[in-house]
Amino acid sequence: MADRLPELRGALADWLGTLGLSEERQEDVVLAGYEAMANSAEHAYRDGEAGAVDVRAEALNGRLTVTVTDYGEWRTPAATNGLRGRGLRLIDSLADHSAQVHREDGTTVTMTWLSGG
Question: What residues does the Histidine kinase/HSP90-like ATPase domain cover (predicted)?
Answer without folding.
Answer: 3-113
